[in-house]
């Protein structure tokens, strides 16, 4: 089917998503202001393109190019429509660098699959929801994760967020229980306490940088959920100090061609290496201590340390259980979760408060619902499913400002997508804002309208047209955790505070590792009830 309509069975209802099974899809095999009423969303280009000269994700060497008459050719996309205004040598790099979101969205009307060039290297953007589903879900075995992940894997190790098959499937099986809905429910108290601690520092009328506050908040929540035991507290402080420089360093390095520049002992490289060393040392120390104590602290790290892997035998029956991960593997997983689970949720929360401030009626309804359900007491796990309007606000904010804005894959075999043939080695790109802002899928897409999720057909949208957490075997393992955290944070903050924009400050989308606001200064005002 060509692009335009998703169909078929429902995935997870947006309202119940926070407690839905995390693996709910089958597997196989110049800046523009966005304050006020401007409907135009563009972003400030930075860090682009991260995968330009990345190595092949499986072998660590460049992807093999197809050969014609014994000579390598630079294109493997002969029958794919090509974006206009390609410049010799540079390809479309400048257009993309000037306005990444605008450029990618401009490709939507040109076909289900459209190619553009980064320098001389083709990348195919997949626009049709049904073809996206094939790439991520039904034909996923024909694709690997692509060059960006290869770089991250070099720096972080082969963890869940970076691994390819078959290693990925084993890791997923071992990690899944730590993110089971029952386990996530147990983290809500930690989440609420950490959120309350951050908010306790706010003073009426004194501006706070909401984006930074949310980054602090999600880091506190993730580290507490990871290392709940007392012995983890020193580690928590060190992680908080080192994580940000490590994240920034990885983003920068994923853009560098080759490894030469990384080896030059510049102050920047030295800071990155020192922070990475501190982070790995402290995580190693905690893993040792957890291993030695053997106790279950009810946190993620306990789950990872005590995990046993039961490999199915040839008949599919359970084989003998064995320790699932070495200490080095546990450390890699911890690092992966810290990287994947903090800025994503922080970015989503920032956009939620930004949109609430711009839509007083939505804000009023959130306050009304929170007051009715909580009646002045702290939020609990059972409240999360009783906040349907908050749920719709979160869903709509994440549709409009999808934090993970690019998914990348690389074809490992020839595959036919609609009318075009994708050759092995071709990089594919799925631009989630292009999908989530498609007027054929979401009428008046730039309008923040939480009630669009009341439409009866909305329950099917999670199948193909609304996939902020991805889909298929790599679907976000932390989606339930993130949803619980988002709901708890919004309910806790909105029970006491309104966040009002600082007058005259413009908020822009910045397409870095995540699609985040450039800055979000806001003024906390105590609510008068
Ligand atoms: C609003 C918050 C979040 C968003 C929007 C988000 C989005 C995503 C997306 C789109 C993917 C799929 C990437 C791909 O297909 O290439 C993903 C994967 C992943 N996410 Fe999240 N995420 C969020 C929060 C979290 C949290 C809180 C955690 C952990 C505590 C987490 C851990 C992971 C991991 C480990 C993966 C890799 C899964 C795999 O490949 O099996 N994420 N996330």
UniProtKB/TrEMBL annotation:
The UniProt record gives the binding positions of heme as 476
Question: Which Pfam families does the annotation name?
Answer: p450
Q: Its domain of life?
A: Bacteria
List the PROSITE patterns. Answer: CYTOCHROME_P450
Q: Mind listing the UniProt keywords for this protein, alphabetically?
A: Heme, Iron, Metal-binding, Monooxygenase, Oxidoreductase
The UniProt entry, under Gene3D superfamilies, shows: Cytochrome P450
Question: What cofactor(s) does the depicted protein rely on?
Answer: heme
Q: Which InterPro entries match?
A: Cyt_P450, Cyt_P450_CS, Cyt_P450_E_grp-I, Cyt_P450_sf, Cytochrome_P450_Monoox
Molecular function (GO) terms for this protein are:
heme binding; iron ion binding; monooxygenase activity; oxidoreductase activity, acting on paired donors, with incorporation or reduction of molecular oxygen
Q: Which family does it belong to?
A: Belongs to the cytochrome P450 family.
Q: What is this protein called?
A: Cytochrome P450
The organism is Solihabitans fulvus
The organism's taxonomy opens as: Bacteria, Bacillati, Actinomycetota, Actinomycetes, Pseudonocardiales
